[in-house]
Every structure is written in C-alpha cells, then in structure tokens.
Description:
mainly alpha; Endonuclease Iii, domain 2; Endonuclease III, domain 1; 13 helices; elongated
Amino acid sequence: MGEQGGIRDAADVARGAEALVRLEPRFQPVIEAVGELPLRLRGDGFEALLSAIVGQQVSTASAAAIWARVEAAGLTEAAAVRRAHEDDLKAVGLSRPKMRYARALAEADLDYAALRHLPTEEVVATLVAIPGIGTWTAEIYAKFSLGHRDVFAAGDLALQEAARMLFDLEERPSEAALREMATAWSPWRSVAARALWAYYRLQKNREGVR
C-alpha cells in the first residue's frame, strides 16, 4: 500500500468518516443521511486501467458493452493488446484514440506491483505520463484500485457540484479551488470524496441537480 493506514475494508471507511466529521462537522448530516459510505475497492493492474480508458467519454451502458466485447476477445492483458491487429481493436468498439491509448498502456509495461507501494504523488506522476491517462483517471486508480486514503479527484464534476450544494457556495468550485478546499480534509480525502459522491447521488435522487 502506497500510504500508511490505507483503505482496505469497510471498517477503514467508517473510521475515516468519524475522523472526517471531526475535521469538518458539515459532513455529519451527510454521513447520517447516507449511512455506511461505499468501499468501492476494485482490482489493480493493466486490466483496471484499460477498463478506465474504455469508459472515457462514453455512457456507463456503452462502456459496459464495449468492455464485454474486450473481455470476449481476450484483450484484457497487455501482451494480447500488443499482439492485436488494429482491426481487432476496432471490432470491439475502440475509437482510434482509444486504440492508441490501449497500445500505449500495453507498451508501457508498468510494474503494477511496485505501484502498490508508492505514495500517491508518484503513482499519479507515473500514470499520467502514459497517453490517454489523465489526472482524474490516475487519482481514481490510486483511490479505488490501490486503496489510498488521502487522494481527491478534484476535477470530478460530481464532486464539485456536491461541494457547491453541501457548503452552500454561490457557484461550482473550480478544480483548483476544490483541491485547495480538500486540503483541510487530509489525511482522509478519499473518504471525503466518497461522502460527497454519496451526497450528490442523494440530492440528485431527491431534488435533481442544477
């Protein structure tokens, strides 16, 4: 784990939620309304990052359909993507840019085991050096694939909108402004993100989000 005391299970999330409320009491009603915050941990490695690339700029349903074809074609491993013909990648639904990103990821030959032991900043720097992987994707990977407890994807529009509503801001904060705001929630920024996402869904279901 790239940081001491990372998130491994629901108990870690609950412990983080308690600490988060002490840091920022305005999270208390969110925690009470939502109940148990989601763990959302997932696997790491090439397959996880390729899945993230597949899901970029398409709907959840479209991403799931494309990913199902990727799996059926046996293209979830780096070696298979390196061997694949362009027509094979096109056949599963990858756009030309995503074909390029998939190959770049496969050819990067990352040491995924080593990534598990790096601090968040080094994980993000390593991943964003690969074409097709931006800061948001790298931070999401650190948060949910590696279990880092103090990473915050401030470029996420849902997090920005949730912060606007929860903290009664006049407008949605920019990525830079939200990142600065989130420093006060360290070392539990990953739990703060979970809380804000949960709050966003709660508000959207109740009232709709402007």
